[in-house]
Task: structure prediction
Amino acid sequence: MIAQALLDGLVNGAVIGLGAVGVTLTYSILRFANFAHGELVSWGAYFAFLLNLALGSALLSLGAPIGPFSFGWSLPIALVGAVLLSATLALLVDWLLFGPLRRKGSAVIILVMASFGAALALRNLLEFLFSSAPLYFTNALQIAMRLPGGIRATPDQLLAIGIGLGLAVALHLFLTRTPTGRAMRAVAENPQLAGVAGIDVRRIVRTVWVLGAGLAAVAGTFSGLLVQIRPQMGLDLLLPLFAAAILGGIGSVPGAMIAGLIVGLGEAFAVRLVGAEWRAGVAFVVLVAVLLLRPQGLFGARRAA
Amino acid sequence: MSALSVRDLVAAYEPDLPILRGVSFTVHPGELVALLGPNGAGKSTLVKAIAGTAPILSGTVQLSDVPIEALPVHEKLARGLGFVPQTENVFTSLSVGENLQLAADRLPKSERQKQIAQVEARFPDLIKHRHHRAGALSGGQRQMLAIGRALIGAPSVLMLDEPSAGLSPRVVGEVFAALQTLNRAGVTIVLVEQNVRAALAIASRALILVEGRIAHEGVPSALLGDDTVADLYLGRKGHVSA
Result:
């Protein structure tokens, strides 16, 4: 029982973690809470769905399942396309909305409100285009494997955990070992000094959108693969994403991933122990508890307001 | 050729409240020019406007006779303008090594290590702190790191905004000695300072900014010799040290 909740939590947590990493990056570098991040997750899932459908119909062999997984090669290819399209969407929203506000020197609250507006528009556009009926990558049933300890898991679930952790490690190495990563950390700490130190801050802002939206697309695709695709999926993920980003410490990529897993585990155990209707409350409790007890999060540096 | 030439510069954070009201001056290669003046005269705004971190309303800024006022901040750096802001001038969450590496990243690969090694040779104290967070450095070490960071890429003009702020007199001495050594090695320096005595001791020329305009200009001995100027703007200390 407990082992199974552990696995369910890790699977769910991997998706939350990927989204939370995007939230923490945009929050620390763009300096506002982007409430439209959930919609990047939804749009990523829909982009992947459409590309997967198109590829699978065009070339039937691409739709044939790879090994033990429920999907064919069309999905990984579609995922790459979805990452690129989501990144383009994020850059477009920044160009139309956040960029002009930043140049005007708008207050943070204006940016946050604008992100609410963007979220609403993007979500309703999805509903308009695809209706609110759920979509599925595949209708095939996948048989769960028996793992030691009486745990059951589908290969897709294990892949989600693996990809989630792999991407978090890769991003952490990117931030700590590469010139662009160093520049991103510098902009997060002090954008004005970053410019004086020779960093093209606008390029870093674009990089952050591309990375955040790309990770959101991966999270959305896995969420769609493991559960279903709905226009509301991003909205439902928003609270867990923010809870994880804040629990991990704003700006900390490993923190966001680990906190994503913690929130995912919390949700899974809440479902087992107190009932499924309490699941959504877990992220809220985590968020309030962190803000009250340790506002800088598990791995965040204490910052002056 | 001038190293830095500023013409009729008007800068303001609020369009109807100009802080600089038409500043013009020229810095020649190899000079160490001190920018002095009472509090609120616009000294910091002047170097910030030149560096691109304060908004310019009108006027021109030329670096080695090339206009740079419309360039983004990082482009000015690429053209050879080094700037050390007064506060928060190092990335405290990054290591000392990363602070230098960051500034070197924009250079061609073959240049990076060479430039960092040159800065470390100049400020050997930074070497043993290479892996420490810059936030853990003392005030003087931070200032050395900030100057070192600005020197990467061998700028043609180095501007510093009150490098003595918040430092003990002994450390101020070390920082100014370092600036003098740099200047003797050929680096053109523009130095904003409240510490008039220390600044005039190493400056080749000084500008006195009053209410957003250059009110006086001259070599330190001439300015200190002018009783009105010395009394009004340089303070008794400056006068005594002449």
Q: What stands out?
A: The first strand of chain B starts at residue 4 and ends at 11.
